[in-house]
């Protein structure tokens, strides 16, 4: 698979021929192509263009989280290619563990790790955790998190169960 300014293509390594990329899962006929002209969502052979979008994240319910150019806002497009939720602040970065991970700011503390703050949303666009965590890992109905100087475990409502200072362990 080759991402170019014109879109996403399958590249035949023997011939160099490029064809529009098709999702290898034949049961799933939904995919996106990102390029200079924005994002194009393909559903069963139909194409819908989103020229102001720069990045797409596929959600398992058939929706997409699309980030606008500049990465300052994002929104959810439903299976009917209409806006289902948003716009929201931040940049939708990935979908895993049933959550949309959104970059929403940067820490001033430089410790050799990713300095992004993350907001956690469910696939319908409901915010689950605010943008104060530098790392979030869902864990059996709870969340393992790290802030600038604390780490620990949150309950399903985002309340601290265990909160440990990590200032002594940060790089100088």
Plain-language structure description:
The chain has strands at 2-4, 7-11, 18-20, 30-35, 38-43, 46-50, 53-58, 64-68, 73-77, 83-89, 91-96, 99-106, 116-122, 127-133, 135-139, 142-146, 150-154, 160-165. The protein has 172 residues and is mainly beta. A 4-stranded antiparallel β-sheet has the order 7-8-9-10, with no helix packed on it. It has a 4-stranded antiparallel β-sheet with strand order 11-12-13-14, with no helix packed on it. A 4-stranded antiparallel β-sheet has the order 15-16-17-18, with no helix packed on it. Mean pLDDT is 79; it is low at 23-29.
Tally of DSSP helical segments: 0
How much helical structure, as a percent, in the residues? under 10%
- What is the overall shape? elongated
* Sheet of most strands: 4 strands, antiparallel
* Secondary-structure element pattern, one letter each: EEEEEEEEEEEEEEEEEE
Spatial strand sequence of the major β-sheet:
7-8-9-10
Radius of gyration: 19 Å
Strand content: over 45%
Distance between the termini: 41 Å
**Overall number of strands:** 18
Mean pLDDT: 79
Residue ranges: pLDDT <50 for 5 or more in a row?
Answer: 23-29
Q: Find the structural class using helix and strand composition.
A: mainly beta
């Amino acid at each position: 698979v080759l991402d170019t300014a014109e879109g996403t293509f399958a590249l035949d390594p023997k011939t160099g021929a490029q064809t529009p990329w098709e999702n290898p899962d034949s049961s799933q006929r939904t995919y996106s192509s990102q390029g200079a002209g924005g994002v194009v969502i393909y559903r069963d052979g139909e194409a819908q263009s989103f020229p102001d979008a720069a990045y797409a994240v596929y959600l398992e319910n058939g929706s997409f989280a699309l980030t606008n150019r500049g990465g300052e806002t994002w929104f959810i497009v439903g299976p009917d290619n209409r806006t289902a939720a948003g716009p929201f602040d931040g940049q939708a970065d990935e979908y895993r563990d049933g959550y949309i991970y959104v970059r929403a700011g940067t820490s001033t503390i430089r410790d050799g790790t990713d300095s992004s703050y993350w907001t956690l949303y469910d696939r319908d666009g409901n915010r689950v955790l605010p943008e104060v965590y530098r790392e979030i890992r869902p864990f059996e109905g709870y969340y393992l998190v790290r802030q600038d100087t604390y780490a620990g475990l949150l309950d399903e409502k985002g309340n601290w169960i265990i909160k440990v200072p990590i200032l002594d362990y940060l790089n100088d």
